[in-house]
Design a protein that fits this description.
InterPro entries: PsdUridine_synth_cat_dom_sf (IPR020103), PsdUridine_synth_RsuA/RluA (IPR006145), RluA_PseudoU_synthase (IPR050188)
Strand content: 25-35%
Protein name: RNA pseudouridylate synthase
Helix content: 10-25%
GO molecular function: catalytic activity, acting on RNA; pseudouridine synthase activity; RNA binding
Distance between the termini: 45 Å
Number of helices: 5
Number of strands: 14
Shape: elongated
Organism: Corynebacterium macclintockiae
Pfam families: PseudoU_synth_2
Number of domains: 3
Low-confidence stretches: 177-185
Mean pLDDT: 83
């Protein structure tokens, strides 16, 4: 809505549709033009150049069906447009590459997390996909590389922790304290207090070995024992897995936020490797049938083979 005069700032202003506007929709409004009344207006802002390496990112398609795509999202590429990146996102790039303007991400992965992302391609069945995520009916498994935690073994263990997202704080807090490493509390079921929300995560260890740090992991790795973990979030809190591993004293390699904000630490060694949900809409309303398991099998077969490669 413009008032007074049309700005002379180098941008093009076009009249928007409005019943009482003296301008037809789409009429260019010249800089300096005096407006008698507040006028609904469209403006096309200038967008900064986006990183060429993100715009050219490889996004493998692992599943293609009538209602959905499942892709392997690269590290560093946002799932959807945000305030800084509009074109360099999985959703925008796949819309252009596949010429499917209706593609919409059914959920999100953190920008730094690599792995399986579901895209809805049919507006008529979009709610069917999104509702499965909203109702926590989707089974998701992640793999992470981090320092070895001796207390975690090959059997699944469940950890319940209260977490709190504080505005303008890059870290999610565990309980009421800042997310600083503590002694592992694998058997402790902590109850949330105040505004903190309950989180539940299953975790087990896949493999352990001594690993020399590289630029793709984290200098903190040194030559200490390193492990690959599998994690299954039962809730959907921001940074749930990253905050959990940091709380257990084993922040994920490449994490630029936990335990301290430190950008430029290399690719986050966290990947969404398995997702299980119904990818084709059922004829029976609300029913979840024909669940499909999509997995990055090369990660599952050899926990070490795909790490340290960005």
């Amino acid at each position: 809505m413009l008032t007074g005069r049309v700005p002379d700032d180098g941008r093009a202003y076009l009249a928007a549709a409005a019943g009482d506007s003296p301008f037809a929709p789409g009429t260019p409004l010249e800089p300096g033009l005096a407006l008698v009344d507040p006028t609904p207006t469209w403006v096309y802002p200038d967008f900064p150049e986006e990183p060429a390496e993100l715009l050219a990112a490889d996004i493998p398609i692992l599943y293609s069906g009538p209602d959905a795509l499942v892709v392997d999202k690269p590290h560093g590429l946002p799932s959807t447009p945000n305030g800084r990146l509009l074109r360099a996102t999985v959703q925008s790039l796949m819309r252009v590459r596949l010429r499917e303007p209706e593609l919409v991400a059914a959920h999100r992965l953190d920008r730094d997390t690599r792995g399986l992302l579901v895209l809805s391609r049919n507006p008529a069945t979009r709610g069917f996909l999104q509702s499965q995520f909203q109702r926590r009916e989707v089974e998701k498994t992640y793999q992470a590389m981090a320092p070895d935690i001796p207390e975690i073994g090959a059997q699944w263990q469940e950890v319940a922790l209260p977490m709190l997202k504080v505005k303008d704080d890059p870290q999610v807090r565990v309980g009421s304290a800042a997310a600083l490493p503590t002694q592992p509390t694998l058997s402790t079921q902590l109850k949330p207090q105040g505004r903190a929300k309950s989180t539940v995560t299953r975790i087990r260890k896949l493999a352990t070995r001594r690993c020399v740090a590289t630029s793709e992991t984290n200098a903190a790795a040194g030559t200490a024992a390193t492990a690959v973990y599998e994690l299954q979030p039962r809730t959907g809190h921001t940074h749930q897995l990253r905050a959990l591993m940091n709380h257990l004293g084993a922040p994920i390699y490449g994490d630029d936020t936990y335990p301290a904000y430190c950008p430029g630490t290399g690719a986050l060694q966290l990947r969404a490797v398995v997702i299980e949900l119904a990818l084709v809409a059922s004829e029976e309303k609300g029913a979840i049938k024909n669940r499909q398991r999509i997995a990055i099998e090369r990660c599952l077969e050899d926990p070490w083979s795909q790490w340290n490669r960005g």
